Structure formats: C-alpha cells, structure tokens
Amino acid sequence: MKPFNTRKAATRQVALAAASALAIGMSFAGAASAQTATSTLRGVVYDGATVENGGTVTATETATGYVTRGRVGANGQYVIPGLRPGSYRIQVTTSDGQTTEDTVTLALGQVGTLNLDVASPTTTASTAGATDLGDIVVTGRRIFEVRTSEVATNVSQQQINDLPQISRNFLNFAALAPGVVVQEDDAERTISAGGQPSLAINVFIDGQNQKATIIDGGVAGQDDSRGNPFPQAAVQEFRVLTQNFKAEYEQASSAIITSVTRSGTNELSGDLFVSWQDGRWTAQNVFSKARGEAKPKLDRLQYGGSIGGPIIEDRLHYFLAYERKDETRERPVYLNRTEFASQFDQYLGTFTAPFEEDMLFGKLSWQVNDRQRVDLSATYRTEQDIRDFGNGPTAYDRAVAVNGDTRSVVLKHQYQGDRFLNEFSLDYFKSSYNPGALNFDKTGARYVIYRDNVPDVATNPASAGFQFSYTNIDSTIFTLGGGANNQDIQQESITLRNDLTIPDVQLAGLHTFKMGVKYSMQSYDVTKEFNRNPFYTYDIQARSEVIGSSTIPTQVSLALPVQPTAVDNNVFGIYLQDDWQVTDKLELNLGIRWDYEDNAVNNDYRTPDEIRRFITALSSNPAYVSGVDLSQYISDGNRDAFKGAIQPRIGFSYDFFGNERTVLFGGAGRYYDRIGFNFAFSERYGPVNRTKTVYFSQNGGTYGGQQTVAWNPIYNTQAGLDTLLAGTVGTGEVFLIKNDAEMPHTDQFNLGLRQKFGGVQAALTFSYAKTKNEFGWYRLNVNDANSVVIGLPNAALIDPQTNQQFPYRNAFYSDHNRERRYNAIYFTLDKPFNMQDRYGFNVAYTFADAKQNGSRDQGLSNFDFDYSSIANSPWFKSPGTERHRIVASGTVALPWDFRLSSIITLGSGRPFTRNNVGEGAKPDWFSAYPEKHAFIIPAWEWAYRQVDLRLTKAFQVFGGQQVELTADAINVFNFKNYSSFNQTYRTSNTGLAPLNPTFGQPTAQFLPTRSFQVGLRYKW
Question: What is the pTM of this model?
Fold first, then answer.
C-alpha cells in the first residue's frame, strides 16, 4: 500500500487551493490561448488605402461551423487567438456596414496574417487549389508564417498520411525539422535534437504535457518501446519547435513537439485501414548474413480505423480512432561453441518473439455558444513485447515481457470574452513501464568456461597447471532458466492549467498579452526486483581443478527484497508573454517563465544513519583524497527545492518591406529541463539493493580466492537456499545527491532570414546553444587520476555501531557540472502540397558542431568510470550528432489518381571513439568518423543514406467514397548504414604499437534494412 505522507498532503491541499483560486481569478479576468494546441489569425482591415475604425471579424471553421469573433480596433487591426488549426471562412463587417470575406487555412501554432479590404470584391472559397485527401478538404489558401521568431516546422495531415513509413508512428516525421534526429533500433525509437539526448525533448498532445518524468525517452511510454505513443489516425497535424519557443512551453531544453488531435465535423466520415509486411520482404542484416544465419522472420500487421461526425450539427461532434499493431519476430537460439550442443538440444531452435499494441482515442467537441467551447478526450494504449532471448546462446526461458500502458483524459474549456480569451484545462495522465521475466518462478543458470588465472610461465613454477579463480570466467556457453529482474514503474499526474490572452492592447503599438499558470500533482511509484531470482553458475567442462562436476554449481547470487518507493511531487509553472507589434515591420516577443518542483530530487529524503556513518569512515580514511565536500550530500529530509528556474525569453522579427516576404528574425532565451526521478531513485534504492553471492566447493573453506560452502543438494530448494543466504552478508551501493543541485538548462541564441518566393518559403538560421548543470555519477573512492585508493568493500571501514564491515561495494556522488555547446546552421525550403500545383516538398539541411564533457552515457544513468569528476574529463564531440544532415521529402500527384511520395535522408556519420591511441593514454573519445559513399553526386559523399518511397493509388467508388492502395519501399536501395565500428586504433596501448588494420570497420547495422509493405484504406 502506498504510504500516506501528511506533510505532502498538506502541501498539496494548500497548493491546489492557491492554484484553483488563481485559475478561477484568471478565468473571470480573461485568459490565454496556449499555442500548444491552437493558432492565431491577425491583420488589418482596409477600405481602399484607409484603415477601418471599428467593426467585427468572424472566423467560422468550415468543417464544424464553430464560430469565433474578434474586434477591429481604431487602427484597423484585429487579432483572433485560440483557433484550432484548419480552414476558416473569415468575414468582416465594418462599423459602417461594409463587408468582405476570405477563406484561409491555418497551421498548428501559427500566427497568420490576413489583411482584408472591404473595397475589394469578396473573395469566395475556391477549390482550385484544394487538397482533397478524404480526411480534410483545404478550401482556403494556406497562409505562410513568416513573421515569427520561433524556429519551427509544421507537419500537415497530408504529410502524415502520404509520406512513406512502416510503423505508423507520427513522431517519425519530426525528422523533417532541422536539427532533429529520429533513430530506430530493434528495441525502441528515439528522438533527439540540438546535440542533446532524447530526454531533453518534450511532447504535447492537445496541450497535455507527455514528458517522461521517471525514465529515459523524453516522451512517456517511448523508452524501451517499439510501439507508438498515440494512434496516428487521430493526429490532425503537429509542429516541431527546435529553438526560441515562447514562454508557454515547459520542461524541455532542446525541442518541443506539439500536436493537435482530430475532431468530428458536420459530415459523417471515417476510414478503415490495414497494412501488411511479410518477413520475406525485409532484407537481412549484413552481419547476420555473413555469419550464415537463417534470415529472421519479421511479419507486421497493422489495422484500425476512425469515425467522426455530428451529434448536433454546428454544435456537438464526436471522433473515435482505434489502431492495432501485431509484430511477429523469430529469434534463433544457438550455441557459438557447437561441441556442447548435445547438452542443450531441448533449448535450441527458433522461437517467436511477438509484439502487440492496442491504441484507442475518443473525443467530444461541444460549441456551447458563440463564446464557449468544451473538448473532452481520452486515450488508452497498451502493449507487450516478448524479447531479450535468442540471437545467440540464451534460452527462450530467459525471455522478458516488456509491458507498457498509457492512459490520459483531457478536459478543456474555452471562453471568449469581448476583449479576451480564456482556456482552462484539467487533465489526467498515467504511464506504466513494466518489464518482467516470463518465468520468474524458475531459477536461472549459466554454463561457463573458466580461464587459467595464472598463465603458465617457465620461470615461475607456481604458475604450472590450471590456477582456478571464481571470478576469472573465459566465456559463457549457455544461459537458461527464468530471468533475473522485474520492474514496475508508474508516473501519474493530475494537472490544472489556465492560460490568459488579451489580444489587442494599444500601447506604442499592438500588444497581445498572454499569461498562464499550471499546477500538477505528480506521483512516482517504482518497484524494482533486480537479481531477485536465484542465478547459478556451472562449470560446463567439469574440471577437477574447479569443482569436478557440471551439475554442481560453483556459485549462486540473489539480491535481497527492496520495498516499493512511492513519492509525491508538486509542480508549479507560471509565465507571461507579450507579442508586441511595434510597427508594421517590427515585432518583439518578450516572455518570462518560472517553474518549481518541490520533490524532484528526493527533497523529502533523509540520509540513513548507516550511510552517514559510512561517509564519516570513508572520508576519515587516510587514503581518501577526493575533493568532494560530503557535508553537501547529507540530507535531513528537508533538502531545499530548486527555486531558480527563471527563464527570460526574447525574440524579434523585422519585415524589411512590410509585405511578409523578406524577414530577419532572431532571439535568445533560457530553457530549464528537469531531472528524471530514476536518477534520484538510486539514492534510495542502491544501498538496500544488496546482492548476496555464495561460492560452492566440494569441501568448503577457502578455495579459488573465495570463502566457500560445501555443496549440498538442499541448496537447490527454496528453503535450503533461504537458510544458506540468511547467514551471508550482501553488498549494496551508495549514491549521494548534492543538496543544492540545480536543474539542467540551456541558453539558446539564433539569428536568421526568411524569404518567400511565391508558394515556396526558404529560411537560413544560425543557432547556438549552451547547456549546463547536466548530471552524472562519479566514484568517491578514487583519486584525481581515477585510480582506486580505497577498495570497497574494505575491512578498514568498520561500522562503529555493529563492529562489522560496511556492506557497500561502490560509493557514488552526483556531479552536476556537465556542459554542452552546440553551433548549427539550418537551411529549409518548404512548399506545401496542393492539388492545383500537384506537388509539395520540404528540405531541411543541418550543419552541426556539438561538443560536451562528462560521461559518454546520454541517459539518466550517466556513470563515468574513466574520470574522477566532470572537471577532470575532456571535451569531446557529442555522440549521435552528425556534422551534416539532409532530410528531403515530397509528394507528387500523378495521372490516374496515383500519388508518389518520398523521404531522402543523408548523414555524414556519427563520430566514434579511438581506443588504444598509444602511450597508455585514455581513449580519444568520438574523434573518428565512418567511411562515406557517393549519393547521386560523386563528389558529395555520405555515411548514412536512405531513400523511402510510397506509391498510392486512389479509386473512387459508390457514393463518393474512396479506396486507396499503398505500397511502401523503405531504404529501397538497401544502403548499408552502420551503427558501430571497430574502435581499436592500435594493436596495443603500450608505446606506439602498430596500427590496427581493422580499425574503423563496421560491426553493427542501423535499422531499417530494405523493407516493403502494402496497405489498403477505405474512406467515406
């Protein structure tokens, strides 16, 4: 049962009352439309060359009939915030009764400009350039967003539906934005940006924060998952902000992805789809093929559908979507040492590793009246992935079921006053990560070959013969039995948010003021059972020098149980944003944000007395030389929460000619991220996660360098093992978090130029970012040269209370001084698809120079065993960041209702490390680059090349309904894109040994290999 924390409960009651009062107060005063889920339309109303004075502008969403109104000011200007992305019929009526109208399309997060002239003939909606793809009909011209200081890329529903992909994960298309990388492997898909790891991004769906608050991945439910975060059929469009996002955005230091879901319309519509990938349609990994392995099976079936329509026309609409994914993979279980095959025949062969996922989304949209709108949506996602066996000598019994579950509910209320817009939301979010051994009731076992601990040397008679040591294992021949670990990790939150916009304040120009407050009650529940299944080791050779048998174990390991952890965290956020149109050419975006968490890094955790005594003993040891002030790491349960997350943000845009064609833009800002709870959890878990190991011999006593127990068959039973381990001291690990640790933050700067050429928009951006206060674990028992000066456990470190040796095998402290520097140049070309031009394209080029210090690990568990501190670590190129990267996409409408779409991805290659550089030096981290190959232009070479294609054929059937056939070809040329390389630069690190001739040769391959998929879609 989750313990009740009275202090936290009182804090939450006060916080909830304060947040509710502030939200209600803002609701009556007016409110802001958060750009995470809406758009803004603004402009000037003219009568010929004269600006109008007063009047009304009405925006009617063509699909639903929902109406939003704005006022025309004394200078003819109007601003309508809070519009859902989509097509609108814009009608203006001046104070003297003149009218005109136009029809336009707004993208998500866009601030579009539409100037209207009542002296001109009315512009009626034209379908000449409409994009009719069944899901949406764009009946208005799309407005380019030119005068924004944000560096952003919009991905439309046309691109989501038409561009090639196999997994139906809409986040794949985040790669269309400069500086963003989407990478897939056999276990998960990651999204990273700006030279930072995936945990630095954040995703919003309908304004709901989807940040992973405990584990890696950036997005909840994406770490360690082959599934999709959300049903693609329910996504209308999304926007990727890679830099200079405004003050309403939170908890990200690299990129923000914000998406809006589909809603029902006045027309009943829907679709059913199915896609199929046969395992025979996927090319084999080049290394698997070289080893002579059979081609592994991978069948993928995806199906689902959506339906939406009116309950009350122009008032109440519904939308539902469901998607299912089934993947069937085969994993071979085999021995690398075939001479032992007869002992494990029953475990060898090919076994199925299935993946299953279900996703369901539902939404109700209600236009209460012309001033109020209510949206209620809910999402359910569940998945299971059977894996972590096979592809070598690991039996199917060892398989792990990685279970994931995500649930969310979002309630939003929008109220439009005469001079303001209010948006209030209440949401619930829960995400679970639950990997568990399929056969936790079976003990685990490995069969190994031991190495001679002292190789024979003629001059040393004592070395003759086989010298046995329990710790000197040469190789593992086979592993079987139940898995060792179970985990159950759950993040849960209830969040209230209120945003306020006052859109047309005249004060030395036109101001749109936004302000907002957020309060989130978050809980983190973590259960980890590491090494809780007994794991035996056997000598498969049955050497007499070991134990003389392959059926009697040489050792057994088991960890003590650890109680689940339940932690509450209250999160506050408040911001103010001023979008100030100083003149018809100059606009300033001025914002400031403050975020606060009261229990992000174990702020209510008290350092146990035993740990305090251990720290005292360690720091008092004469050999202790660490410069760490350990008094800063002892907590009395009242660790101060970080209050310094003040984030000023400023941007500007200057329209040189006032016609929104040539615009200079730029900005600077500070962006705070957070520390995932899995990092802080180590402080609670490490010391009590104690592993016990018992070594067996024929007669007991000291043997093989260990104190042993004589083997007894009763130790194969649970009761016998419990009795044996009860008298054994286990060892844990100490983790100490600095009391005044700051949250990581990034300072971003950019300057760029946008140019519009008819229907094409180009942008050139110069970007710089500096990240500070990233964290990592470093050892306390080493000197500045990283040599261990106090071995752990240590007989000299005695607990004065028990007179026993302290049971800790490692001691780590948190260092929060890791930094990054990112210099980049972005160049983009964007031409939206429409049926009048019959084509559209997007090109994003990134030049990046990314460097960092500290640990080479990029997740929350950043351990560094090569240096004693971040200050003593060198600067090196950030792993995962290519110097040059191009992502180009496009769609062409062909005759006979065919459409051809493509994505081309080119990368110069990720850096890798040079080991054995000579003279005993440490590795030269990430200093080498892979071999490159030509792509079309011989002189222009790339290490990563991928061309994806999709061909779609549409058939018009009865009643205006449509059937689409699709064929996807992913990595159609089957380019070999390698993910790792031989890093041994010299044959030895002693002196200047000869160069290794195999250095730089590839050792692993990126997914995907060439893959084909077919699909069928029926739309009505």
Answer: 0.91
